[in-house]
Structure formats: C-alpha cells, structure tokens
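stuck on this chain:
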Amino acid sequence: MPHGWIILDKPVGLGSTQAVAAVKRNLREAGYGKKVKVGHGGTLDPLASGVLPIAIGEATKLAGRMLDASKVYEFTVTFGTETDTLDQEGAVVATSAVRPTLAQIEAVLPRFTGQIDQVPPAFSALKVDGRRAYDRARAGEAMELKARRVSIHALDIVACAEPDAVTLRAHVSKGTYIRSLARDIALDLETCGHVTHLRRIKAGPFTLEQAISLDKLNEIGKGARLEPLLMPLEAGLDDIPALDLDPEAARAVRQGRVLSGLSQTDGQYWARSGAVPVALVELAGGEARVVRGFNLPDVAE
C-alpha cells in the first residue's frame, strides 16, 4: 500500500477534487485497488495552476497541516476592469481609465505586507448562513462577507507590463485570497483590476521543482512505476525536527503511551524508528504525547 505525496503541477481548468480523482483513478488502474486513501493539501482554483500536494495513504493524516501551511503565488493583476469573480471568468462590474506607474505600484505594496484585513471574494467557498458564498452569488443574492485578518509575509514585483498590468509574487498565510489582494491593490491605486494569471509556486515545503505534470501522473495508470514520483510521508514534516526512538520507545508511542524524561526543547516533533515515521508528537516538560500516529511497517517487517 503506497504512503506519501504526489506533488501535481495542476493545469488550468482542473479542479482540486478532479485532481484527487485523477490520482485515485491512476492508482486503481495501477493495481492498488479502491481502498487507498487520497486527499489534497489545499484547494487551488480551476483557473489557477501550480503546486497541489496530494496525500496518499497515511500521509492523508497530514493534510490538515498542509492546509494550514503558508503558500507562495505568482499572479498578474490587469488594470482597468473589475469582474464579479475578480478573475477572467466573471462579468465586468467596474471600469477605470486610470493606469498606475511602476513607481506608484512599488509605493503601495508595503501597505499590503504584514497583517492585513481582507474581505473574501463573493465567489468563494466560504459559507454564509449555511450556504456557499459562490452559490448565493450565482443566484444573485446580496450578502456581506466579513473582513478576515491574514498575513502577507512578502510581496514583490516580478514583472510590469506598464501601464496595463503587473505580475507579483506573494508569500501568504492560510486563508488569504489572491483575488481579493489584487482587487485591493488596484483600488488603492485609484483604479480597478482583476487577476488574469495565477500560479502557486510553493505550498508548505513543496515546490514546483518537485511537481509532476498531469501527463506524467497518467503514466502511472499505464504501467509506469509509482515510487519515483512518490515523495515520502515525512517530506510534509520538514518544518519540524525529528525525534529518534529506540525500539522500546517506538512500541510505546505506537500504543499511544506518553514518553517521559526527554531533554529536547518543547514543541512538535515527528517521531521515527530508524527511517520510519511513527507519530507526530507534542513535547512539553520532558513528556511526549502522540498527536497523530502513523500505521507504517518497520523496514524490517
């Protein structure tokens, strides 16, 4: 049974759920059966491309951590028109003849760096009174989405097709909407704009250099080996240190018992027996408690 990550360079037009279905189909066609667990680590809009981590087997237990991880995007804001979806898919709702200069764009970017309040797009998956915002928006219903606090860790200019468009790179926290960021930057420049290109170049620890194309993925179902394309489960844990366990401690952790007398600094660790991940643990006051166990066989088994 496979366990680990496939990092897909998701093409434009494919939804995240469709990408998961494509992985499931290829694994089934490769002979792994229908019971392999598969999930993605962060939704990517159909009109966006780039890094989509897809967890397989025991790695699905880390999908929640990946949802919480920061992301890096490159996106193009085209000035002069705003759409109801804030991207190319929607209908035009505002226009402006104002076109900012490169110097003006550079001057406003610091205002959008750090913690900012952001109103999500009307066309988003957020629930408003129990219904998805995009369903209500498509039905023409009026609604008010509340501003949310997000973090923009870095925001830089990649290219500028002055005066009509600018391409930016943003390193953002979870919950950040790039379409809203583009809208707000344009409004601060006393014009309007929408996203005409959006590509995720990093999600958590995973980068485009590790990603495979949809064509490469589809080769698995035609007989290509999965192993060279599968990153190990612990690749999703490279932001926290490892905790090495002897065989007795590994057995205790697998049974969910607390380890005592540890000298490591408090915090989260991934416990391993040799090279095999055993559990995600939280260490405090010299004691390690299991947060999430992994049902992986020892290499010797």
About this structure: Helices lie at 16-29, 63-68, 102-108, 133-138, 178-188, 214-220, 247-254. The mean pLDDT is 93.
